[in-house]
Amino acid sequence: MGVWTRMKRSMRALFGGIIEKTEDPELILQQTIRDMRDRVPELNNSVAQVMATEKLLAKNKERLETQVVDLDAKIRASVKMGRDDIATAYIGQLQQAQADLSRTDVQAEHAQLASKQALKARDNYVLNMKKRTAEAMQLISAAKQAKLQEQLAQTMEAFNIGDDASTFNEMREKIDRRVAAAEAKLQLGTSSVDSQMQDIEREAMDIQMQDKLLEYKQQMGLLGAGTPSPSKQIDAGSPIDHDADLLDLDPLGNTNEKGHSN
Question: For 249, phi and psi rounded to 5 degrees?
């Protein structure tokens, strides 16, 4: 095999592959339907011309038939009048008219047959066009469905490959790490010594406020005699001051020793 032949074969294969890839079945079928519909007016014009020829020949036939009848009457009238010369001239015209009538009759028959065949061909084409159009629409629908299935298959293939899934997993792990770090920082912040000291100070302030409230109530005589004084509310586990048992706080805030009255 020569180099030139191999080159031509390679070029044909290359361009054939490119054309095949660029061919869209849906677009090609739609263009085919448009081409078939565009041919209908052309066929109608052709059929109209054939039918016009048929009608023209029919009119010529009628005219020649009338002419033959008229010449025959003139010949008879000339013979009765004894004018053989005029009758002979009319006979010549009659023979020519009869020949034209015979030829026109044959042409009219052919034109009538051609007109019927043209109408039949036009009707067959329209019927075939409708059939092909319906088939093309089915093929276009199948092509669209195939395209959707291809897109769905590509999407499912992407999911199977795991491109999006890996992205979601990476983002989930990153978010989990950030949440864990934030929780750890929060736990360290709440368990620190400063936080505990703040809690103790807040509790001590609450105790002082409650003691002050009880003191006001005692001064205003709102508490019974058996209600212990605020200063005697000592937390469990606190060291007991022996001197505190000998002191008592009166309503005016003066301290007195127990067992000694003023």
Answer: -100, 120
Residue 71 CB neighbours (<10 A): 20
| Cα-to-chain-centroid distance, residue 64 | 70
Q: One-letter amino acid identity for 31?
A: Q
3-class DSSP state for residue 162?
coil
Task: Count the residues in the chain.
Answer: 262
Q: Which two tokens stand for residue 99?
A: 């020949």
Closest CA to 25 of 180, 143, 121, 202: 143
pLDDT in tens, 142-201: 877 877 777 777 776 665 555 556 777 788 888 888 888 888 877 776 656 666 677 788
* SS3 state of residue 235: coil
Q: What is the per-residue pLDDT across 224-235, written as a single tens digit (0 to 9) for each? A: 655 555 444 444
Local structure of residue 249 (DSSP, 8 states): E
Nearest-angstrom CA–CA distance, 258 and 137? 114
Which 8-state DSSP code applies to residue 229? P
Residue recorded with tokens 């105790």: 207
pTM: 0.45
Query: Residue 94 in contact with residue 68, Cβ under 8 Å?
Result: yes
Whole-number CA gyration radius for the chain: 61
Please report, as a single letter, which amino acid is at residue 127. Answer: L
